[in-house]
Write a structure and sequence with these properties.
The complex is a heterodimer of chains A (111) and B (340).
Chain A lengths: L18 H13 L4 E5 L5 E9 L6 E6 L4 E5 L3 E5 L10 H14 L4
Antiparallel strand pairs in A: 1-2, 1-5, 2-3, 3-4
Chain B lengths: L4 H16 L8 E4 L19 H4 L5 H11 L3 E4 L10 H10 L3 E6 L4 H6 L9 E6 L4 H7 L5 H14 L3 E8 L5 H14 L3 E6 L15 H12 L12 H7 L14 E3 L2 E5 L4 E5 L2 H7 L20 H14 L1 H13 L3
Helix pairs in contact in B: 1-12, 8-9, 10-12, 12-13
Classes of the chains: A alpha+beta (111), B alpha/beta (340).
């Protein structure tokens, strides 16, 4: 797990080493607030929001909403690759931006 | 306490039924999130950071009602997102009121006046608008990252009260808040005529943009003690007085994460309203297959260590009230005397 950037996973396309690594990547994808692209061993590549994962069951699985609202389920064992392709919507700086705007507004002449 | 007697009775009889049935875990308030879309982007909120296609989605009324039936809690709180942006909010609220379910519609009130003018809602003892107000104008507008929202909300509250609606406020308090200003805020809300107020410390969502201002436990105790010290008799709180005592450090509770179960477009959120560790397909699966012993302060889970949020601890306070004579006595005394 050395390739991940510090601030956001956006754009990251890691290689999967083994099943333990896959489970770690799925946890990161579950926590990621952007779309991911999932490549199954068989079948079509899917891009969507990974909204659920459960590895406390005999056959661990993930669930993904595609862009049109369809839900897809994949067993961990079916997944060949995961890439963090969508914009990380949690990486915003709205608090800082707000404080900066307020400060700039207060500093304007006549404010 | 400002909860109407009929609502108090509905909750009391429900809790007693659970106790008599020997149920160790039961829900008290269903947190029903029909959508994540919001017209604000508050600094302390970790609920709305999703891709556009997720923000465009929402639950159907049928899905919402199915969740209400599955859960069976006597109270349904509708947060979000901003529930007034949910296109089916009128039909959903009407259906819940028809079932005699107590509804708290949690709103920032930006759209409330327009929705009232449209005749979307009818006053009912089962419906309360719970307006998000994080303090006086300066503090609130800063918390919601937009100027003018406090005044909009105040106008909407006035409009709702004029029409005969129940209106409460909900306030999330962060580090740095002035106790004196909060006391002034309570006075102002009482002057406005709201039925009661709800307060809670914020939770440090990992996805919230502002990570610096969340309260740690001891600081929270000090802050709430200062805010609620010698409470004015005119202040009315729409929540358990034992929870307020807990915030002040006068009472200790363990978290009840199943007390306010959360349902949204992803399913039943594990384990609670604040933490997202996965989703169960059914309410039964949530209750029976969640590893509850891994949550709460005693579990040692670092995510739970400093949490004092109402969704976990208010159900504990209510359970304590109806679980022991002492709890019942303490609640009655605090309610009657307004002393915390």
């Amino acid at each position: 797990m050395s390739a991940e950037p510090e601030s956001t996973l956006e754009g990251w396309a890691p290689e999967i080493h083994d099943t333990a690594h896959l489970a770690e990547l799925i946890d990161l994808a579950f926590d990621y607030r952007g779309d991911v692209t999932l490549t199954p061993i068989h079948g079509a590549v899917l891009t969507g929001y990974l909204y659920n994962r459960n590895r406390a069951v005999p056959e661990p699985f993930v669930q993904v909403f595609d862009g049109t609202g369809g839900s897809h389920t994949f067993r961990y064992a079916e997944i060949r690759a995961i890439a963090f392709t969508g914009k990380d919507t949690a990486a915003g700086k709205s608090w800082e931006a707000w404080r900066q705007r307020k400060a700039e507004s207060a500093a304007k002449p006549g404010a | 306490m400002s909860v109407p007697v009929s609502q108090m009775w509905a909750v009391a009889s429900y809790v007693l039924r659970q106790k008599l049935a020997g149920r160790k875990r039961y829900p008290l308030v269903l947190m029903l999130e029909p959508l994540f879309r919001c017209n604000l982007a508050c600094a302390g909120c970790g609920k709305i950071q999703y891709p556009a296609h997720i923000l465009k989605r929402h639950l159907s009324v049928e899905q919402c009602l199915r969740a209400v039936d599955e859960c069976g809690a006597p109270i349904v709180s509708i947060p979000g997102g901003e529930p007034l942006m949910y296109p089916e909010i009128g039909p959903l609220v009407r259906a819940l009121v028809a079932r005699r379910t107590y509804v708290y519609l949690c709103t920032n009130a930006i759209l409330l006046k327009d929705k009232l003018d449209e005749g979307l809602f009818e006053p009912s003892k089962y419906l309360s608008f719970s307006v998000h107000m994080d303090g006086l104008r300066e503090e609130h507008d800063e918390a919601v990252c937009r100027d003018g929202v406090y005044d909009q909300a105040r106008e909407a509250i006035r409009a709702a009260l004029r029409r005969g609606f129940r209106v409460t406020t909900n306030s999330t308090l962060f580090d740095g808040v002035s106790p004196l200003r909060m006391r002034q805020f309570f006075d102002e809300m009482m002057d406005l005529g709201v039925e009661g107020m709800m307060i809670s410390p914020g939770y440090s969502y990992s996805k919230a943009p502002d990570q610096e201002h969340f309260l740690r436990r001891r600081r929270a105790n000090e802050l709430f003690s200062a805010i609620l010290d010698k409470p004015r008799r005119r202040w009315r709180f729409n929540q358990s007085p034992l929870f307020l005592r807990f915030l002040m450090g006068k009472q200790d509770f363990e978290c009840t994460p199943w007390g306010n179960p959360t349902y949204n477009m992803f399913g039943w959120q594990r384990p609670c309203y604040l933490l997202q560790e996965g989703y169960a397909a059914t309410f039964r699966e949530l209750m029976e297959e969640t590893a509850w012993d891994q949550y709460g302060r005693r579990s040692g889970n670092p995510k739970c260590r400093d949490c004092m949020v109402h969704c976990g601890y208010e159900p504990s306070a209510v359970d304590h009230t109806f679980g022991s004579w002492r709890g019942f006595r303490d609640t009655v005394v605090a309610t009657v005397t307004s002393r915390l």
